[in-house]
């Protein structure tokens, strides 16, 4: 895969992880057929691979910063896929998490 910007990798990883987890949710909680698990597993494997593309020498930092992106992306999923609009506390919380992710990734002596 070409050298994608970190933000794009994180966005794709979040979509893959949320879609993969939602496939299991749909099977177990929404009475969807068991075959929903297969694309869920593929999506979760894609998520894990995407995180390996983050330009950092240590995995933990990539995962920690990703956490903030995941939270914000989950609220977008909540709104666009599940039709439940996030409230102001959701938005404030996600903003704090994204600021934290930025600090983790872009702190002094770190490259994106």
Automatic annotation (TrEMBL):
<dbReference type="Pfam" id="PF02694">
    <property type="entry name" value="UPF0060"/>
</dbReference>
<dbReference type="InterPro" id="IPR037185">
    <property type="entry name" value="EmrE-like"/>
</dbReference>
<comment type="similarity">
    <text>Belongs to the UPF0060 family.</text>
</comment>
<dbReference type="InterPro" id="IPR003844">
    <property type="entry name" value="UPF0060"/>
</dbReference>
<protein>
    <submittedName>
        <fullName>Small multidrug resistance family-3 protein</fullName>
    </submittedName>
</protein>
<feature type="transmembrane region" description="Helical">
    <location>
        <begin position="7"/>
        <end position="28"/>
    </location>
</feature>
<keyword id="KW-0812">Transmembrane</keyword>
<feature type="transmembrane region" description="Helical">
    <location>
        <begin position="34"/>
        <end position="54"/>
    </location>
</feature>
<keyword id="KW-0472">Membrane</keyword>
<keyword id="KW-1003">Cell membrane</keyword>
<feature type="transmembrane region" description="Helical">
    <location>
        <begin position="91"/>
        <end position="109"/>
    </location>
</feature>
<dbReference type="GO" id="GO:0005886">
    <property type="term" value="C:plasma membrane"/>
</dbReference>
<feature type="transmembrane region" description="Helical">
    <location>
        <begin position="61"/>
        <end position="79"/>
    </location>
</feature>
<keyword id="KW-1133">Transmembrane helix</keyword>
